[in-house]
Amino acid sequence: MPDTAKSICEKAMKKNRHYVELSAGWPSTSTTFEDQTCSTFYDEARRSTLRMAAWTCCLKRATLTAVEDPDPDNLTGKTYTFDLPADYIRKIGVEDGYGNPIDFLIEGARGYSDTEEPVLVYVFDQTDPTKWDDLLKDAIILMMAMLIAYPLTASHENEEGFIGQATAIAEQAEDESRRERRT
């Protein structure tokens, strides 16, 4: 059976030795303490974990189109201003139309460059767990377990262990991603 947001949360609770199933209607119906806790932290766990590494299962390319800079005193020194994609999580690289790396500055939700149509390579906000590779699923489960550890157990002990494990998985994924991009 493919993983769902619900099964990810239930696995995170089990990591905390909390063997409770979420309500059948979760997340639209959050009736129990566990439902509400998982609803509170799930998106944060997913986005934080996506930001930790260049997850190859969540990479995307987008050609950016310049927009008018709302700041008339643009202090970046760059010629063009771009809105970042709505699903942007983390920059991996920026290239010109020929695949050559270019200088690109990100501040807030905007990008700046001297290249008119840069191609942004980035980790996007993949919300479908069936599209995640196994390492990403494991890291999200651990991040979720870390975030819900104290609310469920009233103990800080599990938090540190889970974040350490999630970070180790993200480092492994980052190394693998570098190798895959090189070959």
Summarize the biggest pleated sheet: 4 strands, antiparallel
Percentage beta strand: 15-25%
Q: How are strands sequenced across the largest beta sheet?
A: 2-3-6-5
H and E string: HHEEEEEEEHH
Distance between the termini: 33 Å
- How many helices? The count is 4
Alpha-beta classification: alpha+beta
C-alpha Rg, in Å? 19 Å
Unreliable spans? none
State mean pLDDT (0 to 100 scale): 91
Please provide the count of β strands. Answer: 7
Form type: elongated
Helix content: 40-55%
Structure write-up:
Helix 1 packs across helix 3 and helix 2 packs across helix 3. It is built from 4 helices and 7 strands, in the order H-H-E-E-E-E-E-E-E-H-H. The longest helix has 26 residues. The protein has 183 residues and is an alpha+beta fold. A hairpin with a 2-residue loop joins strand 5 and strand 6. The strands form 2 sheets. The chain has a 4-stranded antiparallel sheet, with no helix packed on it. Strands 1-7-4 form a 3-stranded antiparallel sheet, covered by helices on one side. Helix content is 42%, strand content 18%.
